[in-house]
Amino acid sequence: FQLMPRQSFDTGVGILRFDRVVGHKIGDGRVARALAIPLKLYQLWRRSRASDSEVRVERLTCAGSDFDRLWEETKGVYEHTNVRSAAAINWLCFTSTSPEKILLAGYKADRLCGYVICSQRPYGTLSMLECLDLWINPRDSGLVKILAEAALDHGQKMGCDFVAFPYFNRSLQEDLSDLGLFQWKSELRRDFIKVNPEVGNSVKERSA
User: Fold this and answer.
1) What pLDDT, in 10s, does the model give residues 60-93?
2) What SS3 class is residue 48?
3) Which of 2, 58, 70, 174 could form an SS bridge with 200, CB 3.0 to 4.6 Å?
4) Strand partners, 108
């Protein structure tokens, strides 16, 4: 195993409970309440509801063979990425219930075309629904926003204060730009990889 360089991601944040989130950020209840209304209106103005009658989003309790098909179709999109086979998704989402993982899958005519994985966790005194992974077939344009909307709706039902979408790459940031998300800097994180040492050194240099 080799450690990757520490890095932080710009994060898109969809606020669900504005008074609590703004109050957490600025620490003044009266000012937070005064700012919450215009900020909420701004996000509603910026946020364009994604609508595609051909796409349905379902919460799953198991990743089936269609996840293997999607992985085979998309594993060459990025030069270096995690394995996303059905076995890998099931291991990530369902081998442990703490914290609970939420798997939302998008289908077109019964064909899996993408999914988002989220997990609820504390953020100081707030409750955050965090996007852990969002994966689509690039040919299905607009799906990123539909999955993000589904995550926002799910966070609302769970009583979360906000939903966080780390921008793992530039294309994801561009796809989510129409949702009116606020921009935060995520915490520094360090990942690790298990590869041949020579390959690992090359990846580390290119990731720095």
Assistant:
1) 999 999 999 999 999 998 877 889 999 999 999 9
2) coil
3) 2
4) 55, 111
Q: What tokens were used for 111?
A: 């064909």
In the chain, count of helices (H) and strands (E)?
7, 9
DSSP, res 4: P
In three-state form (DSSP H/G/I as H, E/B as E, the rest C), the secondary structure along 77-89 is: CCCCCCCCCHHHH
Tell me how far the alpha carbon of residue 145 is from its chain's centroid.
11
First and final C-alpha spacing in the chain: 17
Both tokens of residue 83?
């394995």
Apex 149 CA angle, 106 and 92, nearest 5: 55
What tokens were used for 69?
């098909």
Q: How far is CA 149 from CA 45, 146, 156, 163, 204, in A?
A: 15, 5, 11, 10, 34
Distances (CA, A) of 19 to 44, 69, 154, 162, 205: 15, 43, 19, 11, 43
182 vs 4, more confident = 182
In one-letter notation, the amino acid at residue 147 is L
Task: Tell me how far apart the alpha carbons of residues 91 and 201 are, in angstroms, rounded to a whole number.
Answer: 28
Give the Cα separation of 163 and 181 in Å (integer). 9
Q: Which residues contact 40 (CB under 8 A, 6 or more apart)?
A: 15, 18
Which amino acid would we find at residue 179? L
**Strand 182-185 to 55-60 pairing:** unpaired
